[in-house]
Amino acid sequence: MKHFVDISRLSKQSLTALLDVADEMVPLARDGTDIAAGKILATLFYEPSTRTRLSLESAMQRLGGRALGFADAAASSVAKGESLADTIRTVDKYADVIAIRHPAEGAALACSFYSEVPVINAGDGGHLHPTQTLLDLLTIRRELGRLDNLSVVLAGDLRYGRTASSLALALAPFKPQLVCVAPEGLELPPHVARRLRAELGTAVEETDDLAAAARGADVLYVTRIQQERFFSSDDYLKVKGSYVVDKRVVERMPEGSLVLHPLPRVDEIPPAVDDDARARYFEQMRYGVPARMALIAVLLGLVDKDIPYKEVRGEELELPCPNPRCITASEKYLKNSYTPILDKTESLFGELGEGKRYRCLYCDYEVVV
Length: 369
Ligand code: NCD
Description:
Elements: H1 12-31, E1 40-45, H2 51-62, E2 66-70, H3 84-91, E3 97-102, H4 107-114, E4 119-124, H5 130-144, E5 151-155, H6 162-171, E6 177-181, H7 190-199, E7 203-206, H8 210-215, E8 219-222, H9 233-239, H10 247-250, E9 258-260, H11 281-286, H12 288-299, E10 315-316, H13 327-330, E11 337-340, E12 357-360, E13 366-368
Parallel strand pairs: 1-2, 1-3, 3-4, 5-6, 5-8, 6-7, 8-9
Antiparallel strand pairs: 10-11, 11-12, 12-13
The structure holds N-carbamoyl-L-aspartate.
Residues 51-52, 123, 129, 132, 162-163, 223-224, 226, 262-263 line the site of N-carbamoyl-L-aspartate (NCD).
């Protein structure tokens, strides 16, 4: 594995091996080690963060390395108009591994094309958040003892909540039953739902009845409404406060099941739920450090584990990506690149119409040519 941009590029076997390394890191996240002595992590955060940035830096320091970076791009040369490519070509001279969070979808992949050192995607717009998914999987595996055949309810803003899409795609090889509960307009992005059903053969159900869905859940994964990604404040106000995972919902869940949330929460889980044994979101946060220690250690070759990562090459096409938030819309020197979509069940393509279908290499949006 050279970069870590999209967790769905890891096979079930690779993911399991990475989680095994994370298990070994759990005691070291407390006691520390020096296997990364002399190594430097750069964290480039173009969007707000508490947990992801601090736990990445903590992970690097627990490994014995050091961290540097910025938490606000306004304080970097981006404010002078520097391109992302040039920023990366700068930072890769100063650090051994780079973690980036950026509002544009596909930004981390673009960085990986310009970087001489490994790039970690710490969140790219509403697209993916693979390090969060790694810690979510670690939490589930440690708390429930398995990842296979789970009933997972994804509740909240599944449209813009990158953690929900990332988790759904990463769980696919473990054959989950996914139940989605989202306010109208905030359902899973169509390209994610289609890919899960048609390409990965995942069972994805949708319902409005959160309490009924909770009754059969091994995991209830809750996300906040991603206010910052709405195009208008009216659209946000229409859905604000439209779902609450309160005690009434949680008490219906089986004993030993888990309520998880990537955090921050706003109003979707009231504090009264925190005392329920099923509420594990604070414990989940704790796994952020060992999960990211494992990732950094593997990327830097500090542990003797070969973890293959499927690199995907795109085909350049003179076709602008239809997603206004795609990195190709803002960093104009990037060439539009696509991969052909190979689908098992052609009939599910109805809404995309006839023609050759492609997926944007950067943001995964689908287009028909
Ligand atoms: C999430 C994110 O940034 O996508 N937070 C996190 O990294 N723990 C979820 C969110 O912001 O709602």
